[in-house]
Write a structure and sequence with these properties.
alpha+beta; Calcium-transporting ATPase, cytoplasmic domain N; 2 domains
Amino acid sequence: MVGSGVGAENGVLIRRGSAIQVMKDVRTIVLDKTGTITLGRPVVTDIIPAGALGEKEIISLAASVESGSEHPLGRSVVEHAGSLGLAVEEAVGFRAVTGKGALASVAGKTIGVGSTGLGESWGPLYRRSFRRRRNAWRPGVKR
């Protein structure tokens, strides 16, 4: 467990202690070149609007929700909004949904930021709406 503590202090997150045990036998590591590896922290690289909101509105709302988060991905969204000079509004009722994302109320509207699993948990009406919007920007997907 000391190894995972030292890793965390240096920005390396280790899910299971058994991973440290396995690493003693590893001779080669192959990584894809992402911001997480090259910068040592997650960064926002792409925003693909799928509905009526534009890129800046999406980042501003997401950063407003994530301003209450301690998650590294949430912090990267807030940093991205700051680098663009976007407003981060007050979020009310922040709630982290383990393994799925976060929810909060921004300007009187419930905003969810996270994986598709977060949206899927909202029920059939959301699932249909989300899939329609998601498919709008996916090449080769029936609309």
